[in-house]
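task queued by scheduler; priority normal; single chain, no ligands, no partner chains; default sampling; output format set to structure tokens
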Amino acid sequence: MRARAILPLAAAALAAACSSASGPGVQLTIRKGSSFREAADSLSAHGLVRSSRVFSLYAKLRRRDRSLRWGTYVLRPGMSWEQMLDALRLGRGVVHVVTIPEGLSIADIEPLLIDSLQVTQDSLDAAVRDTALLHRLDVPTPTLEGYLFPDTYTFPDKTTAREAVRMMVDEFEKAWKPEWTEQARAMKLTRHDIVTLASIVEREVRRDEERPVVAAVYLNRLKIGMPLMADPTITYALGKKPGRVLLKDLRVKSPYNTYLRAGLPPGPIASPGAASMRASLHPAKVPYKFFVAAPDGHHEFRRTYAEHLEAIRMVRGQKKDSLKP
């Protein structure tokens, strides 16, 4: 009896010897294949236990050091050692960190969520067509394209497709500033118009300083009823990755073909970041109506079509030079 009582008493003494102060959640990753001691070292490095050696000994005495679920956790300082062991064994506190870069379409975003959250394609397809969210945002298109805000998300374990989409929409609403609505009205545009324009700017621009200028070019075209002639809308209409647009591509029959149809397309073609939305609301005051991309990613802006043709010839010469050995 005495011998059997020693183990729980020793374990209790060890747990009492190494408590942590309370505070906000701490994120850490237990790598696949890690030993329990490696996990304990990570807990110690993040200030969740004072001594990885003593915590490992405690787990061994409790016979809880043989099962470990790997993943990214958010754990609270001040958790008891029993709670921490349960978390590591059962995966409580496991989260899924997903980064959604600016300029991704729903078709690009869905595989990232499927891979991280282990949700189904069907459940995501339904979530991005959530009529309640579409109504809340006053979105006239059939999906939430453009409104899944690009950011790094920490999703709790077992997050559903609908919950993930709602979190991303919530982030969009936080990013959209109240004064932006007033600015859009002053421009005689809706929020949906601005998000649509910003999505094209996001896909078109590689240099931050050019966002307001590219936005200005498109707005200048809109003012005179000139087609936007935005290549990213063509690749979106074709369901292709961003890239070179061929002459035959410009004939695609789609409301997103901004070569054949004047005005903005029906909705966004990707999720724009705050910088592109800001640039679309506050475009540069420039007279340009044309631009062409140079080999290094910057654009040459021009006022007239004749100037534009000359810029194209110049850029083509630069491309030829760049191909020379």
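post-processing summary
- Residues 1-22 have pLDDT under 50 and may be disordered.
- Strands lie at 26-30, 71-75, 94-99, 152-156, 290-293, 299-302.
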